[in-house]
Each structure stands twice: as C-alpha cells, then as structure tokens.
Amino acid sequence: MMENVFGYAAPVWRRFVAPAGVGRLDGPDCRQVIVGSPAAAAQLAVSIRCVDGRILEARFQALGCPVTVAVGQWLTEVLTGQRWPPPTDGVATACRAALEIGADKAHCGLMAEDVVRAMARLAEETS
Amino acid sequence: MIDLDHAATTPLAAEALDAMWPWLSQRHANPASDHADGRRARQAVEQARAEVADLMGAAPADLVWTSGATESINLALKGALEFRGVRGAHLVSSRIEHKATLDTLRWLEAQGHRVTWLTPDSEGRISVDQVRAALRPDTALVSLMWVNNELGVINPIEALAPELRARGILFHVDAAQAAAWLPIDLRQVPVDLLSLSAHKLYGPKGIGALYVCRRPRARLSPQLHGGGQEQGMRSGTLPTHQIVGFGAAARSVVAQRDEAATRVAALRERLYQALSDALSGRLQRNGGGPVAPHILNVSFDGVDGEALRARLPGLAVSSGAACSSATREPSFVLRALGHADALADASLRLSLGRGTTAAEIDAAAAEVADAVRTLRGWAPA
Fold first, then answer.
1. Cis? peptide before A66, omega within 30° of 0
2. Which of B29, B135, B307, B323 is catalytic?
C-alpha cells in the first residue's frame, strides 16, 4: 500500500488509496446528488441505484482532500442496502467515528450529512 | 525518495562534511581564543571566508558570518535603518519576497517606517520600471530577492543596482536561491547588502553570511551584542565547523556551477515536458521570463492540493515555501500572481539539485502525472 506519509487515520487512508466505489450510476433507477464548493476544490457527488425503495448500489465522485475522498467511499458502503431515502439523523457523527476524523477535518465529515440531506430533499421533490 | 525539494535545502556536499569533521571531532577551540589551537581555528574561519567571498566576487573582509539568511536579512534591514537613525524611512520591496524579508519589513512598518510593496506581474516578475516608479526622495532602502524561492523567477538585480547606487539608495538582495546557480560577481554589480544561506548551496544548516559593501561603506547597527566578534557586527562565538563547511560548499559550487546550471536547466525542461506530455498539456507553469535553472512551479486544475501531495509518497516536493508549508495555506506567492486559492493550493514547487538525474526526473514525472490523472478521474464532471 502507498506510504501514509502524512499520517492520516487508517480508515481514511485505506479508502483514499483504493476507493472501490468511485464512479457514477446512470439510468432510470438512479439518482445523484452533489454537494460542496468547486471554488474551494471540495465537492462530493454520490449516485445511487434504487429499486423498490431500497438502495442496491452506490458510487461516488470527489474533488477534495483525502478525508473527503474517504467520506465518499464510506457513504457508498453505508448507503448500500439502506431504504430510500436514507435516514439523516446522526450521519455526520457516524462518519466522524467510522473514519476517525479529527476536529481539523470535521467539515469533511459534515459533507456526508450534506449528501444524505440532499438525498432526502431530492426524494421529497420527486415523490 | 526522489528529492525535488532542493530549494528547501540541499544535501551536504561530501567536501563540506570532510572539511567539517575534524572541527567536530578533534579540534574544538574557540576561534577567538588567543592560543595555538584558537589561532588554527581562526585561520580555518578566514580561509572559509575567502572561499565564500570568492563565490560572489567579493573581498573576504566584506562578509559577516550569521546563522543563516534569515539572520542576514534581519541584520541588513534592521541594522541599516537603525544606523541611519531615520524615523519613518521609506522602503521598497515586493509582495513575494521570502517570509524572512516580509516579516522583517512588517516589523519595520510597525516601528513607523513605510514600505511600498511592489506587486509582480502574472509571470512573477518585478520590473526595473516598477522599482523606479516607487522611489521617492526619501527612499532609504530597496530589498529584492535575486531568485524567487517559489517560482525561480530572476529579478533584474544587475540592471537596478547601478541606478540605486547612483541615487544613494541602499540595495539589499536576498541571494539565498541565487548563489548556487547564478554567476554572481559583486565587483560588477554594485549591491550594498547581500544575504546568503549555506544550506541552500550544499553546506550545513545554521550558517549564513551577509555581504556588507565597504566602498561605499554600508553601515549597520549590530543586532546581536556580546563579545564583539565580526568586528562588532555580529557577536557570538563563531562555529568553526559550520563555517568551514560553508567554505568547502562554496568552493564546490564555484567548481561545478556553470556545468550544473546548464545540465539542471535541461532536466527542468525535461520534467516540464514529461508532465505536459503525460497530462496532454493540462497544467499551468508558474513563473516566466528568466528563471533559475533549478525551480519548476506547476499548477494542476481539477485536483485538491492535499490529495495530490498525499499521493506522492516517493517524492520530496513542496507546495509553497517550506517555511510556510506548515500553515497549509495556499501559496501567497501564487495568490499574488492572481491564482485562485484552489489552483494555488494544487501547485507543486519541484526544485532540482546538481545531483538530480534524468532517471529521477522521468520517475517523478510519471508519479506526479499518475496522481493527477487518478484524482481528476475521481472528480465530478
């Protein structure tokens, strides 16, 4: 594995080095949300494939620091199998705990909640 | 690890280590001591002084040893103004000087002096006309770096020096990044004060020098008081081991500089071309006009700078100056050129050394290009 020269937490690093969930899902069963700021070079796009009210597959695209990339990968892991729309409560807290995100990168963890809240809004708009 | 961070510091030359070792292991006398061992140490110090002076076409008596370029810059700027006793003096410098100069000038502003800060053009250049336009009847001093440490851009020191001398304006030059690469001859370039750093030219860290012109005499008030060493200009026991290392490094630079400059400039262009080819031209080169052989600064849009650096574990590179890298802020130099924060952050300063090989250049280019392509592939369209 690539050397972790800057000492990122292990859960972040392994997701940043080999993020299996990079990509985009398109099609009639798919939905995508994008959050963040291109000007700040911090964006997270998550797309899901949903059948019968359940998320079968999730992919992400990210422009951002290693923690942002890891957040995207983590979301693809936790969203798969969840009902649509996924619950919004406690997402940021769960993300920070799972990825061992420190205070200096707390804003990256919040992007996970931004994604899920955007999904909730999308579900409401399209229902 | 491929070292492309020579602008931050250089490896200690073998000749420097050989010169230093006896003064670390066996000969420990204080060069100010008046006995046989002390006199031998003194002799070694003066021999090194001649070697460093030779690097710049100066006389040995023109040099004051300091702990490095930062101290030299402080001594030059603060010392010159303090000696003149002028309150509210006018100074001219640029926004993209090294932090040692910027912070010293800001301190002088806080003491009531006034600074005109010149903004570089989009290529990072400060022009002669800009400096001329900034001069006032009460301008006491101009301070510019010979080579910008982030961009490699060479300032028009040779053109400015005679004009400032004719106007009686003190001219301080930060030559930390220039001395290893440019043929400086202070017999031809009438600079008043010039700062040097040993560890930027294959010498040890913790030692530098300040060139202080004697004719006409550039007068300074000392900033360190104590034993009166360096003719009262800079008190403190001289570190013989570091000084002889500096001298030996300077000697090695004089012997190799011309060949190294030509070879390294070609390697720098090889690196840029390899990156450009691998990324289909999608990169931005920062710094134009005459540039020093060893520095290449490039920006990569569409990637996060932190993510890029994290994917380069095999390279020693920096974004921004090493002394500012710890703050993790985008380079103030690139922002002064008009870069948006995100692009400034996604930039690398790749600085070569005289030992850099073509194989290292090719491997580095491949690693950087691979990282950039990977990260761009992950980004939302």
1. no
2. B323
